[in-house]
Amino acid sequence: xxxxxxxxxxxxxxxxxxxxxxxxxxxxxxxxxxxxxxxxxxxxxxxxxxxxxxxxxxxxxxxxxxxxxxxxxxxxxxxxxxxxxxxxxxxxxxxxxxxxxxxxxxxxxxxxxxxxxxxxxxxxxxxxxxxxxxxxxxxxxxxxxxxxxxxxxxxxxxxxxxxxxxxxxxxxxxxxxxxxxxxxxxxxxxxxxxxxxxxxxxxxxxxxxxxxxxxxxxxxxxxxxxxxxxxxxxxxxxxxxxxxxxxxxxxxxxxxxxxxxxxxxxxxxxxxxxxxxxxxxxxxxxxxxxxxxxxxxxxxxxxxxxxxxxxxxxxxxxxxxxxxxxxxxxxxxxxxxxxxxxxxxxxxxxxxxxxxxxxxxxxxxxxxxxxxxxx
Length: 375
Prior knowledge:
The protein has one domain (24-370): TIM Barrel, CATH 3.20.20.
């Protein structure tokens, strides 16, 4: 999207009434657009180009990029450093903060530091235990958890003070988010837990992978019954599976991940598991988009990041718009083809092609999907 009050493309925007950040991501959400976010896996490297190269994969397909913070309790480049590199060239990062490795002093400093470098979005997480990762001998901190981290960030932003009470001269202007898992028992309490996170300060939610749309619909009805739909933006987690074997391993070994038997059976019956995983992801996106109250998707394609463009393009979920990326406006004016246009020229089938060959309903007008416009 283009905004009339945008000083320079990619630069922070003026904060509108009712907004808490100058970021593009909040603008997209509050404009009622169906938002798309994805995750950048931080490199095991000190080379900034490793980060920027990974970000380019998402050009024109995501509204914001999550910078993970020691995901799975494994060590990589820090979330704060990744965000600093991304904001330098104008990307809209979501800085994940895990409570596992830092106390409240360090975390408050990171929130201020991230905001000073242009970070407009923060995802507050408790974090995985150290035994889950490759440094089990590390000492866990957990001075805060996701709820108290949300409260801490909101205190910094809204009350202009540290938890100690000391005043802040310039508060961080950020949109606050949290994670939620609607797909594990006790399902009837998940919406209540979400309500507590909203009360603590969460303005957007990114969920665990969704492979069970009926469960999602039940969760969203509970969220609506609690009167939360006008208080929080919910982005549903999706991701492509590589194979039936990988799906079986994930649902056995990844805590909180629910993959129904019909999904495993569909993957097992495919001759090309990776392709069927992408097809399944596209079908899920199209179903999820129709669920009342859902504001977007969070596409997690771990080690399959190159598939993000194809999945988003074929799903039609952006409805023709092109999210901002460095060089987007120059590319549009000079007729440089998008990643989706290149995919089409290289013979990657569109959602309409697949729908025709596999008798699956299309998620949108293939002509619109392959000729997306800046809006």
